[in-house]
């Protein structure tokens, strides 16, 4: 026991010393590495200080926290607290129509994880997290996760036990969502059948795209795309590009650089406003023949992580048939999970993709295998400084 205590003390001292050594770098907003390392060390320090039994029990009860936060969001409590400054539970009850005691109990949970701050008895004020939770995109994301992904994962133990096989599902019509909701629809179709859920999903995707550093800010577009582009050909096809946020960003940064095409399902493209004349909209299902041949770039953002390898190969076969060898490039904008030491966000995203439709977030070695078995050669992995999604550049 004495040896264990000494080891723990030494570990705490080392962690604290490493944190102290990084303090001077925290004033530099651009030093993402220092902030990331501090966050990692702070979590490691917490893990050392907290009794392991507490950590284990906290994990068992963690769904209660997420549900309490979801209820607070449904009642617009975060918005009321942000707008009203320090506000009492009685006032929040009047604003929301909920029982005051109910609000006290819900916000007590939210306060325990710093989603709000309890400044006095039954009085609450906003934290940085409260302000984020008041945003419509974040609130919509909580609803999507709560209504779809969390319920699917709650059913996972029964799903795997009944199947008698602990292997991740790969059929988008026979996975965790289908098991949880007793449906044969894909998750995309299931969400699309509920207008309010579909609206939340679209808001969530738009918000997620808005907070990330754009790939055009750090990927060398001029040397890798524009140089060598041929007149008379399409410069870039944004496949499955949704409302066009990526191709609009590209066009704003590189105006008049060439023909641009946005592709997505008809239900998506038909609802999009008209773009700049240099951007063409095409209704397209990426499991079918690619209508645009010989483009300089075929760009896929957050497409492949939705699908298992078998379905990704079907998508890749279609784009390969349209590419001009030696000229066309495949650019995939997705997460690059480290081979060791994935962050909580990366690990959670991977499991969320499994629950959503049998997809996955991939490591570099998994990307090499996926693309290599489809006949592609990876030219380079490009990664931003802020640990955001990377670019996999490949040719066929």
Automatic annotation (TrEMBL):
Q: Where is the O-methyltransferase C-terminal domain?
A: 224-377
| Keyword S-adenosyl-L-methionine attributed | yes
Q: Which Pfam families match?
A: Methyltransf_2
* Active-site positions on this chain: 305
Name-wise, this protein is O-methyltransferase C-terminal domain-containing protein
PANTHER family recorded for this chain?
HYPOTHETICAL O-METHYLTRANSFERASE (EUROFUNG)-RELATED, PUTATIVE (AFU_ORTHOLOGUE AFUA_4G14580)-RELATED
For this protein, the record's InterPro entries field holds: COMT-like, COMT_C, SAM-dependent_MTases_sf, WH-like_DNA-bd_sf, WH_DNA-bd_sf
Q: Which organism is it from?
A: Aspergillus versicolor CBS 583.65
GO process annotations (BP)? methylation; secondary metabolite biosynthetic process
Listed GO molecular functions? O-methyltransferase activity
Tell me which PROSITE patterns the record gives.
SAM_OMT_II
List UniProt keywords, sorted A-Z.
Methyltransferase, S-adenosyl-L-methionine, Transferase
